[in-house]
Description:
Layout: H1 3-15, H2 36-50, H3 56-60, H4 65-76
Helix pairs in contact: 1-2, 1-4
Amino acid sequence: MNVLDQVRSIAGDVLHVPVAKLSAESAPESIESWDSVQHLNLVLALESQFGIEFEPEEIDQMKSIGKIASLVERKQQ
């Protein structure tokens, strides 16, 4: 499973959205349940799953599933 698929799966669990409805373009504006609290829950789930830590400015850059996946890939290198 690639990073984008893993991020989609985690986001689906956290945001209570079917993974099939999540794409790289999915963003808080297009997902009703993606509010500030759920954003933090998503960040914590990603950090736990991938064993990484995000800086505050990185969290602010998480504007879509695709951007999150790219950020996770960079953090893993």
